[in-house]
Structure of Kynurenine--oxoglutarate transaminase 1:
Amino acid sequence: MAKRLQARRLDGIDHNPWVEFVKLASEEADVVNLGQGFPDFSPPEFAVEAFQHAISGDFMLNQYTKAFGYPPLTKILASFFGKLLGQEIDPLKNVLVTVGAYGALFTAFQALVDEGDEVIIVEPFFDCYEPMTLMAGGRPVFVSLKPSPPQKGEPDSSSSWQLDPTELASKFTSRTKAFILNTPNNPLGKVFSREELELVASLCQQHDVVCITDEVYQWLVFDGFQHISIASLPGMWERTLTIGSAGKTFSVTGWKVGWVLGPDSLMKHLRTVHQNSIYHCATQCQAAVAQSFEREQLHFGQPSSYFVQFPQYIQRCRDHMIQSLQSVGLRPVIPQGSYFLITDISDFKNKMPDLPGAADEPYDRRFVKWMIKNKGLMAIPVSTFVSVPHQKFFDHYIRFCFVKDEPTLRAMDQKLQKWKAELMP
Ligand SMILES: Cc1ncc(COP(=O)(O)O)c(C=O)c1O
């Protein structure tokens, strides 16, 4: 065809780092994939049973359900999160079920971001926020989390990565439409403190800005840290969309069930997008998520709760990975939440600055390619999670995923032991 094919909204967003790095890893024999964020173990038994029940029980679950969510699911989400957020949540007006948290984010951006609107994104950020802003015609405005120097002898921790309050305030203008928050944060694992959230909340209120908060890792918080939803702070429910994911909540990323919670004044616009695009999400998956939440509601806060057991297990995986990475001279930044950690590769950058790759290719990308090929380990370069002008500040970090089972962690250990032996003089 002679005509221009692709819509202009796709300009500049066609490259996807995941496709590139997953392909690279698949081309090498025997690579341990610690890049992508999905569990490689079975979901909890109650979730599997809920799914079996959904596909073998009521045959009407094979059919469409309500466009904005299967009623038992919207009902349990309303009651479960209503208690956590301290809000009376109406299942019909304040809840929308979407195709994963990705679907929730896309619906929110399409519903609220207009041509020329500014959207503040905290970096490092989950990589889809930038293209989703651009596709909606918005202008991403980035503000970076920066590490303060670790205390002597202490390992670096994601809690020491903070926003500079003056810089943050300077990003808000009369054109700012939305602030994108992600806590616990991917890729850093930072859990925003109450004080940090209060600052964001006051700026959003002062500048009449909507807060889109991605809280898919809300149950994965370690070391006694506490997840706080910004929508629970005074005056924030009215201007906040809170996004969650069944995939991350119950270790079922393939089910692709997500949700958005928020005030009707915002949600009605998301419903317009939803009913004119996706319209409807898989009924059986929604039924299985509803039953899983009903089970969790009964066990909430008790040792039998998955939301108690899962973070304990994942914290052990985190600690295992930290120790193993340290053994070869990598310097992990200890995450307080999520299932990712980033690790500092500066020492390698100093020792072997000339890894193969284009001169303008960020070092972390070259390092990951080298590591896949030579060490049989896959991670994701952190420059993937920052805006292009800021890549040079983050190109000495790579991200590992630790939501992995024992055999994968053992396979990682073997690779790292071999690496360590090669480092010996
Ligand atoms: C921060 C964050 N938000 C959203 C998603 C997407 O979640 P879902 O699989 O439910 O679409 C992910 C997945 O990796 C994520 O890390």
About this structure: Residues 8-43+305-423 form a domain with the Aspartate Aminotransferase, domain 1 fold (CATH 3.90.1150.10). The longest helix spans residues 306-326. Residues 37, 100-102, 126, 182, 186, 214, 216, 245, 247, 253, 258 surround pyridoxal-5'-phosphate (CB under 6 Å).
